[in-house]
Write a structure and sequence with these properties.
By secondary structure, the protein is an all-alpha fold. The protein has 25 helices and no strands. It is 78% helix and 0% strand. The longest helix is centred in the N-terminal third of the chain and has 34 residues. The N terminus is likely disordered.
């Protein structure tokens, strides 16, 4: 810090200069001082464009002095800013001052602001967060096109005469395509940027959703092919979105951005489950495919207009994290070799692979089979089953806004990233594990279903989903923690493992259900075992320490 003598006199003597120069440089890189410099540059530009008559008049001079003083008025928390600024102005001119570089930054910021139309205020929502919300809308549509088959499969099976195993095959066909594009999506996103890959993904899954009804009339193989196409498109989305976030969002906002994007999946599930039942009742099961496909195609038309690869000028003013700038430059098209072998040699990467598989086993199996569970095990019709299936997802949506602030708040208070991720993911595993055991105990015998039993099961499932939302602050952040540059590629690897439960687990439920007629053995017991295994492995091996993979 500057001595009291230096601050009181507004000058920096030579003997103090070398000692305090670095401190002054760091101080002036903080946001309040950047605003001060920007106002200084604005004032200077304004004086340069004033008319001579105004400058010559005494009144004009007095006005300018008053305006100068108002521009340099002390901001809240900036009690030393005028003194520090004055000290820098009077520092040794032969020594490089941070003022020159910051003036250049202020000039650049002023030039960017001058591109806006006169009189227009800067947008209240920064560009990077508009991109985050647009990706969130894509993820809403993503799960809407996923759950529509979960609800429509029963009326379709009645019309087309499917068995339980065939229903499982139709539900699982999506995940064959989903698993196939995870690693390629990570590699391509690393090469050309996630924005283009996300656009291609939304277009593919919307197209697959659009052709599903005519394919169903042709046969189960054609329908499965259309669902594979949907999976291929949706498989591109997670890695593409992660690449965009890694190149756009600073570390201090990471958990909130990840929570918004991946939490939108739960909103999509809720919206899809809300709309599917009434739409099927009013217009038949093909309507849910046509409507959701059109919404996806509309998003494809809007996304390029968002200019998602454009740099966020607000972020450049507030802070300049080097890894974000580098990642953005690489995303623009610079070639990069992906160290796949190095990934596989990291225990932290394997911890996320196992955790992703175990968490998604419960998520995807419940996503695919909950409507059928409510209808077949609890005796509800399609409208009521859709409403009850919606309640756990509403609980997840209600809990999600707390995850990001809690995780980022713990980091701000000094917790290590590794401990924060382990805490969040531990909640996402241990809580649902207890809830699966409770559901198995509460499940009534066939013919003995009561409203109380139904309410208890729905309540326990809702608690499970709410605690599961903490995974957004756990395993879903680790890819960017380990290495933002390769975040998309890392998510491609772990999400490939995360897609396997959709293939194995969803089909396995139908097979076990046909043979045992027990929802405990088919649904709750396997999910609980996966949660337990994931909890042990992630707690033991997970780490958010930066790894260069060089």
């Amino acid at each position: 810090m500057l001595s009291s003598q230096c601050l009181s006199t507004g000058s920096v003597p030579p003997r103090c200069h070398a000692r305090h120069q670095q401190h002054l440089r760091s101080c002036f890189h903080q946001a309040p001082f950047r605003r001060l410099l920007h106002r200084r540059k604005t004032f200077q530009l304004r004086l340069q464009h004033q008319k001579p008559s105004c400058n010559a008049s005494a009144g004009g001079g007095a006005s300018s002095d008053e305006e100068y003083n108002s521009i340099y008025s002390i901001l809240p928390g900036d009690s030393q800013s005028p003194l520090l600024y004055s000290a820098l102005q009077t520092s040794d001119s032969e020594t490089e001052s941070p003022l020159s570089s910051l003036d250049a930054t202020a000039s650049a910021d002023g030039a960017q602001m001058s591109d806006q139309e006169p009189g227009k205020k800067p947008p209240r929502v920064p560009h990077r967060w508009r991109v985050v919300f647009a990706i969130g809308v894509a993820f809403i549509l993503c799960n809407m096109d996923k759950v529509n088959m979960s609800v429509a499969v029963l009326p379709m099976s009645k019309d087309l005469g499917w068995t339980g195993l065939e229903r499982g095959l139709v539900n699982s066909a999506f995940f064959y395509g989903y698993a196939a594009t995870q690693i390629p999506a990570g590699w391509v996103s690393t090469k050309i940027g996630g924005a283009k890959v996300l656009l291609a993904g939304v277009f593919l899954w919307s197209l697959g959703t659009l052709v599903a009804p005519p394919c169903a009339k042709l046969g189960i193989l054609a329908l499965c092919a259309s669902r594979v196409l949907v999976g291929l498109g949706e498989g591109l989305a997670p890695s593409a979105a992660t690449s965009v976030l890694a190149a756009t969002i600073p570390e201090r906002e990471r958990a909130r951005a990840v929570t918004v994007v991946f939490g939108s999946l739960d909103i999509g599930s809720a919206i899809g489950l809300t709309l599917c039942g009434p739409l099927i009742t009013l217009a038949g099961w093909p309507s849910v495919f046509y409507l959701f496909a059109v919404l996806g195609l509309l998003w494809c038309g809007v996304w390029p207009l968002m200019k998602p690869e454009k740099a966020d000028t607000a972020l450049a003013v507030e802070e300049q994290p080097q890894h974000i700038t580098a990642a953005a430059g690489q995303a623009a098209g610079a070639p990069r070799a992906v160290p796949w072998l190095k990934f596989m040699q990291s225990s932290a990467v394997w911890a996320v692979i196992v955790a992703h598989f175990c968490f998604n086993y419960g998520y995807y199996v419940l996503l695919a089979w909950l409507p059928s569970f409510f209808q077949l095990a609890l005796g509800l019709d399609i409208s009521n089953s859709s409403i009850l299936t919606l309640i756990p997802y509403l609980a997840m949506i209600a809990a999600t806004p707390f995850v990001g602030p809690v995780a980022d708040g713990l980091v701000h208070r000094g917790w290590s990233l590794t401990n924060v991720r382990k805490l969040c993911q531990g909640i996402a595993f241990a809580g649902p594990l207890v809830c699966m055991a409770a559901c198995a105990l509460l499940l009534p015998a066939p013919g003995a279903v009561t409203p109380l039993a139904t309410s208890l099961i729905v309540g326990v499932l809702s608690a499970s989903f709410a605690m599961g939302s903490f995974a957004r602050g756990g395993l879903y952040c680790v890819h960017q923690d380990i290495n933002p540059r390769y975040a998309g590629a890392l998510l491609g690897i772990t999400n490939t493992a995360g897609a396997l439960p959709g293939i194995v687990g969803v089909s396995l439920v139908g097979l076990v259900l046909d043979r045992t007629a027990s929802w405990t053995y088919a649904l709750f017991l396997p999910i609980g075992l996966c949660y337990l295994f994931g909890l042990i492995v992630f707690t033991a091996l997970a780490s958010s320490e930066r790894q260069e993979f060089a």
